Amino acid sequence: MVVILSSRVFSSPSLLSVGTFIKHFPTLKPPYSYLKFNHTPARKSIFTPSAAVDNSHFQTLSSHQKDQIRLYINSLLEWNQKMNLTAVKEEDEVMERHVEDSLAIVNPIRDSYLSNCGNSFENLSVVDVGSGAGLPGLVLAIACPSWKMTLLESMSKRCVFLEHVIDLVGLQNVQVVRDRAENLGQKLDFRESFDVAVARAVAEMRVLAEYCLPLIRVGGLFVAAKGHDPQEEVSRAERAIALMGASLLQTCYVESHSKHGQRTAILCLKNGSTPRKYPRGPGTPSKLPL
C-alpha cells in the first residue's frame, strides 16, 4: 500500500498525517526520531559563506531567497543526523557541492527553453525526478518562484523531510509526489504534462531517459546534471532517447566552481510522443536499460 504523507503528497489510497504515519505502521522499525523535527524549531543559522567557496549563483538571489536557502541547508544537516540524506556534513560544502551545483543549471535551462521550447521562462511546470533531499528541485523552486515544481520521490522518509522543508521555508509552488517514475509516467494526470524534467545523481542517461521523457510534453525539455565527462554515457543513451521520442539537444558545461570537478548539463528536446509501452514496469529500466 502507498501512503499519502500530507495534503501535498499525491499517491493512493490512504491519506495520513505525519503523526499518524507511525501509528498506522507499528511494524516499521526505528530510527524514526527524525519525525520529531517537525515539532522542534530549526536550529539558528550559523552559515556564513567562506571566502574559499565561490558562491556566484547564490549571490544573485534576493535576500529572502538567501534566507530560504539557509533554512534549507540547516534542516538538511539536522535531519541528516537521523537519516541518510547526503554524505556532506559541513555547511560550506553543502553550499558548494549541492546548492551552487543545482543553481548552475538554471541558465542552461533558460537558454535552451527559450531557444527551442517557448517564448517565456516564467510559469514552467517542472518535475524533479528522484528528488531525494530536494536536489535540485527545492533549490530551483526557491530560485525560480514562478515555476510549479513537482518533487518525485519514492521513499516515504524523504517525502517527510521534503514536506518539512516546504513548510519551514514557506514555499507555495511545490508539491511532493510519493511514487516511482515508472508508475507516474503511465498515469494520465502526469504523463507528458511537464514543460521540463530535471534529474541529478539518479541513474545513467539511458535509464534516466526512460524515467523522465515520458513525463515531458511534446516540445518540452529534459535536463540531466552530470559530471565532467559524460560523453560515453550520452552515446550509450542515444537509442533510448530516440525511443522516447526525443533528441539530444546539447551537452554544455555549467558555471559550477566545485572542487569536485567540472559539471555538465545534458539537454534533450522532446520531439514527439513517447510510445505507450514506455516507461516499462518498476525496476525494469535499471535492470534492462534500452
From TrEMBL:
Stored CDD domains: AdoMet_MTases (cd02440)
Gene3D superfamilies in the record: Vaccinia Virus protein VP39
Keyword rRNA processing: yes
Top-rank lineage group of the source organism: Eukaryota
Record key words, sorted: Cytoplasm, Methyltransferase, rRNA processing, S-adenosyl-L-methionine, Transferase
Keyword match Cytoplasm: yes
Any single biological process term in GO: methylation
One MF term in the entry's GO annotations: methyltransferase activity
InterPro entries in the cross-refs: rRNA_ssu_MeTfrase_G, SAM-dependent_MTases_sf
PANTHER family in UniProt: S-ADENOSYL-L-METHIONINE-DEPENDENT METHYLTRANSFERASES SUPERFAMILY PROTEIN
HAMAP family linked to this entry: 16SrRNA_methyltr_G
NCBIfam families reported in the protein's UniProt record: rsmG_gidB (TIGR00138)
Protein's name according to its UniProt entry: Ribosomal RNA small subunit methyltransferase G
